[in-house]
Amino acid sequence: MGVLFQNKYRIPSTRAKWHEYDGGVYFVTICTAHKIHYFGEISNGKMRMSETGSFASENFTKVTIHYPYAEIPLFVVMPNHIHAIIFINNNCNVGFINNSSDCCRDAINRVSTCGGITAINNPMLRKCLGTVVRGIKARISHYARKRGMQFAWQPRFHDHIIRNYHEMNQIAEYIDNNVVHWELDELYN
Predict the structure, then answer these.
(1) Weakly modelled stretches of the chain, pLDDT under 70
(2) Which among 15, 97, 184, 187 could disulfide-bond with 105, CB atoms 3.0 to 4.6 Å apart, if both were Cys?
(3) Which domain holds residue 110?
């Protein structure tokens, strides 16, 4: 159940309260609203991307242009979601560490509840996972809207903190095989 804030219900953050998200390696899943196939279709074991899907792929490939502290070495664009491994290196050693400086857990929620924070206190300017995902989602939404295409995201995103190389290798294998195993995917519809 959400918490009432300014006469609106706000769902509490699902981010780990013990982790700051300003450094580390993450497995992220971002879904479209209502599982609609905005990014294309899978046919004969191959992803055939729509214009929006191609733009999404380009944004994940070029993430360091907008966020020099972020790297996405592996991702897959599926018809209704995107899986990615995202490295965040905010002046720390990326590589399965728990860096605890005062950064952001869920920047989107902080902006919506803080009443217009500006300058250096703006959570959207923080170098963290939430900022990267929010920026990518915003660019893809803007692209579709500007071209008159229907498009919408599911609110928020799913993340998993990758704690070791074994876990990262398992996730990388899952991402690599996601298109081939589409009909077994929990987001298949």
Answers:
(1) 1-22, 90-126, 185-189
(2) 15
(3) 21-180
Residue 15, both tokens = 């981010």
pLDDT of residue 118: 52
Q: Would you say residue 49 lies in a domain?
A: yes
AA identity, residue 130? G
Are the CB atoms for 79 and 56 separated by under 8 Å?
Answer: no
In the block, residue with structure tokens 């309260």? 17
The total number of structural domains that make up the chain: 1
Q: Give the up-direction half-sphere exposure of residue 58: CA atoms within 13 A in the CB hemisphere.
A: 10
Of the candidates 21, 156, 178, which has an alpha carbon nearest to the alpha carbon of residue 87?
A: 21
pTM (2 decimals)? 0.74
